[in-house]
Amino acid sequence: MENRQPQSATLLIYCEDRSGIIAAVTDFIHAHEGNIIYLDQYVDAEEKIFFMRIEWDLQTFVISPDKIETLFKEGLAKKYKMNYRLSFSDEKLRMAVFVSKLPHCLYDIVSRCQSGEWTIDIPLIISNHKELEPVAKSFGIDYHYIPITPENKSEQEAKQVELLKRNNTDFIVLARYMQILSGDFIKNYPSQIINIHHSFLPAFPGAKPYHSAHKRGVKIIGATSHYVTADLDEGPIIEQDVVRVTHVDSIKDLIRKGRDLEKIVLSRAIYAHFQRKTLVYKNRTIVFN
Amino acid sequence: MENRQPQSATLLIYCEDRSGIIAAVTDFIHAHEGNIIYLDQYVDAEEKIFFMRIEWDLQTFVISPDKIETLFKEGLAKKYKMNYRLSFSDEKLRMAVFVSKLPHCLYDIVSRCQSGEWTIDIPLIISNHKELEPVAKSFGIDYHYIPITPENKSEQEAKQVELLKRNNTDFIVLARYMQILSGDFIKNYPSQIINIHHSFLPAFPGAKPYHSAHKRGVKIIGATSHYVTADLDEGPIIEQDVVRVTHVDSIKDLIRKGRDLEKIVLSRAIYAHFQRKTLVYKNRTIVFN
Amino acid sequence: MENRQPQSATLLIYCEDRSGIIAAVTDFIHAHEGNIIYLDQYVDAEEKIFFMRIEWDLQTFVISPDKIETLFKEGLAKKYKMNYRLSFSDEKLRMAVFVSKLPHCLYDIVSRCQSGEWTIDIPLIISNHKELEPVAKSFGIDYHYIPITPENKSEQEAKQVELLKRNNTDFIVLARYMQILSGDFIKNYPSQIINIHHSFLPAFPGAKPYHSAHKRGVKIIGATSHYVTADLDEGPIIEQDVVRVTHVDSIKDLIRKGRDLEKIVLSRAIYAHFQRKTLVYKNRTIVFN
Amino acid sequence: MENRQPQSATLLIYCEDRSGIIAAVTDFIHAHEGNIIYLDQYVDAEEKIFFMRIEWDLQTFVISPDKIETLFKEGLAKKYKMNYRLSFSDEKLRMAVFVSKLPHCLYDIVSRCQSGEWTIDIPLIISNHKELEPVAKSFGIDYHYIPITPENKSEQEAKQVELLKRNNTDFIVLARYMQILSGDFIKNYPSQIINIHHSFLPAFPGAKPYHSAHKRGVKIIGATSHYVTADLDEGPIIEQDVVRVTHVDSIKDLIRKGRDLEKIVLSRAIYAHFQRKTLVYKNRTIVFN
Questions:
Q1: Which residues of C fall within a CB distance of 8 Å from A45?
Q2: Nearest to D256 by CA among A119, B272, C152
Q3: Homologous superfamily, domain B8-88
């Protein structure tokens, strides 16, 4: 990290709420000639937990990037018993994408990366089906076909984890991946696996939500992006959105309208995640602006 | 009905789908010099049911208003085994409002009637609490305080029904009425009782949906207006809408934001109902445009 | 102010952006045993202006409410050349409402006040027409009929201002008031007059926006609430919202759908204003969360 | 067309409104054993114009597909002086895409075609820049680089038209194409050129709408898809949508949020067009459901 010159540093913090934390953190940056370019904080009044996201310019900051963590850890983090995550503007996260047969979310994700809209890398795509290999190919991304059966599941998941580790994967996106990940798998990536569910959770969890929505006669359908936990479709919600439907819309129409929702909701969640705008506390997310 | 001169007539129809129904109905109107001013139809392809709403100008129509029903009944309705409802533009529906302690929906509803925005009458307000009597008074509407306990429920409901009948009530609106109506009560007004539930159904049915929504950490909250059936919060949905929330919003904020949603969603449902734009079939609504 | 015990104090601040302001303000509160319950800040990077809203609990704060302003003024405000506004949670703003003939916004506003949803007072309603006097009456609010003609305008506006001052009016809401206020009038209440315009500004400024929207064939209509400045429909926007329309919607339908928009958009703007969540800088608003 | 077996036929019709048109058209289909699977109609009461979209099953229809047009033309179309367009479910439209440097709309469009979500062909992409050639390549679509200067414009447009004709192009999509088409060019494709403008028209027409939106301080931004006419940004609107922004959003944020809007709005407009759901009359569109 010797010659590294990131433009800015970002701290995501949470800890028990106490008077004076904001003053202490802003003082720390100010005292070392840093200029705050973003600050947002939030106190969960019920849980008495303080959450903060702060970003500051490193141009004039007198502590070198590789020393910041140690200093912060030994100083404020210790004093206030903070959970924190420090990141720098020149770090490029590595994202693995899991897919099955539906291509729309995958196209949307890889297009955003290839066009430079998103500054993240996609080292690999993993699938339990072969259908989307041509898409991966045309975008020049490695595609790993790893079929899953009840019998081979734990073995195949081990293979997946091995691949992910070898590729230094930071986080995983399930882009309409039609397999349930085991608790063991999930433990490897806590709050680092993002799923898109094609309903307005907690309405219509599980399989075939559009069919259920049609049957119930709802006037609005939704999509939900959330971090994956061991409880299916119960993880902390990152983003949701909805679209109007009417009695005229068949299940096929719901699927068509929902597809566009899924793309946009998943993409917004991924964006918030790699911009380090999300914090998870007790099954809820704080998504900074 | 001798001297009656309604401007237009409206037919709401549903029946088994067969070829030629639209032609037959439009022919019926055309052949008697009526001019169609609205036509919308929908076929439920799965159930093979045909639904239609048609409105025509009566100025040049050669059948007099009081003869239309008989003619239609003996002719097309018989031939196609139609369920239908005929109404005229000069009919003013009579709506009863049930409330408990929360005033926001009530204010919205009575304001719309008093200002002439809605052409319906509110002969009476019924409540299990006394709190909103002053509101009813200031708008000059009869207020009936009918407290409900588990013990007196069936007796009090009988009293309510008697009041409703005596006031020639066409339909009932539960404007945040915090009592569950019995199946016996509901049978008196099939598809004529409109409720507002303060969640995006089927998510968070039952009590305290804002608390549940906050706990689950959803990013959008909703409100749902539906016809009341014997299954609590399971009736056919008329209208839904949503509003964004964030981690910053406390339960109090959800309640505040939700209040505005409840008002607008309930009002849209009432409007669709008294404009005869709704049809119910097998727990789903057709809401014509 | 001797015996006054407000629960919290709120500071709205803006000044030239300099390093260390957040630390200084949070230190000021922290050093005097105050507990921050809300903090939001924003830097306009282009204009290099710092904006902040901070609220703190006064229970343990060692400076008495009536001394805070002097101390802050002489200390931080002077040092950083701050524009600021200090308010306390027990202050109840006084709002005048101007109307013409359309009642929907007026009903919505007075209902919210009468029901206790909003903690503001409405000492008076002013109108250039007599139509809405009964509404004012039924809510027990003084109604002043002040007709305006080109000839008597300045004279009548002087009368309005006199009435407003005598009633200690803090801010004014134009609830579909169909008269243009003169620059002279506006000068009395800078950033304290809130208007609702029935279009998605800057589209369709001026008269008859629904007619223009219909003619242009837009697929969405809107409403805009803004602070009134000398330039008609050009003042800083506080809130906007929209609703879908289709080719089917006549001008009458746009007016009907728009009415609901106007109510909600105006009410959200009023809420943000009396909660001291708004700041104006160079014809744009900062609306804190 | 001998062996052709389309599943259904669709008629888009408009003509002067007269009593009996619906009956006549539905009779025509019914009398020849066709089964109506979609009917929507609309009367512009002011202009006294009747619009209709009707689709019917051809399985049992006794007139062969290649004879329908002649019969309809000589019969009903003549009688009622109808403008009409007949199409069959097995026709696949051919769409040309014009782009400049921004890739997001292009990616979205070609992904939808390649994945089979849309049943249209893209024979060619035309651009005044070279930047997006690799995207076209990776999707296997011909890319024609045709730079435009004030001097060579009419010559280059002639070349474009020649290419379009040679490729049997049915309609054209301007996917953030940063060149104004001449009136001469447009005449070749009346109501067949779809543009996406990155604002909520009629607000912010012309160049740099996000900069203007930021300057004006709007709280919502939009995107508009419309048919191209000789008047810049004045053509009939097909679809619009919006997204919320706040004071916090910089111009860069507006561009980012707007990108997603542009994609979805343009895609919805293209879908409505190739599904033959749009009709244009006097600078407004009828977009059937």
A1: 37
A2: A119
A3: ACT domain (3.30.70.260)
